[in-house]
From TrEMBL:
Organism: Bauldia litoralis
TM ranges: 111-132, 172-195, 215-234, 241-262, 274-298
Keyword annotations of the record: Membrane, Transmembrane, Transmembrane helix
Entry protein name: Uncharacterized protein
Amino acid sequence: MTQIILVGIAAGVAGALLFLSPIGGTTLAFPLFTLCGLPIALAGLGWGATSALTAALVAAAILTIALSGSAAIIYLALFAGPIFWMTRLASLSRQDDPDSADVEWYPIGRILFQGALAAAIGIIIVGFVVGYDPAAITDEMIDALAGWMAQSPEVAAPPTVADIEPFVRFNVAAMPFTVSAILVIILVFNMWLASRVTEASGRLKRPRPAVWTAALPREAVIVLAAAIVVAILAPGAIGQVAGTFVGALAAALALVGLAVLHATTFANAMRIPILVTVYVVLIMFGFPILLLAILGIVETFIHMRDRRLGGAPPNQ
């Protein structure tokens, strides 16, 4: 138990330092910030839920002292909380026959589903804590962008506020969707990296499943459809909350879509060029996430990987 607590304390300190990295203003600030949940994931996957919980509480205490209670809540809601829950689910298993060596572990698709929901809930909590005012954010972004463009020596004729406003308003309106989608991807990357590290160290308790086998349960598509309807029809805060769930679940389904591409291109001579092209376009433009999400929805119902590979349907 002492080792578990000590690992949790060390992980909490590391997580808090990574969360504080943007204060330094270095070029590595953002990459380090995106890894601020990694220590929690390492503690949870390698030493269990108690260690992960200790890490989360230690990090929150440090951030409260260094910054504020609001910063601690943001860290807990966006990173520590969802990752703690995902690592706890990853440790769950059952054994129908005590005399059998077969152990059924909690499916990674359901971990992904619940992680996406936790990410959306975390963003909503942060919105209430820090305050989310689209009009104020729009005005601030327009002023900042207009000032930056006016001072840029590379811009001969800087755009006017009227030119900038439609672009900014669109991006602010899309923030509930985009922020939650990005957060889900960051959380999944942290979990994946932690699983690789703990497996290499021999601390990973469960066999690490192949990522390309991940499949969301069908209720994920149902929740997504309901959230889309609410986001379209409901104005104001309710629509923004629904948009947060749309973004989180769309990102989760897009990851399943990527898994489908990885699986269905096995033994294909063009596999590497296809995957590289998809990733480059996805990183540069972002919009292909919608196409991948549609692919993930289709996979949820018709199991293309099963038909392509001739194996059992993906474990849900």
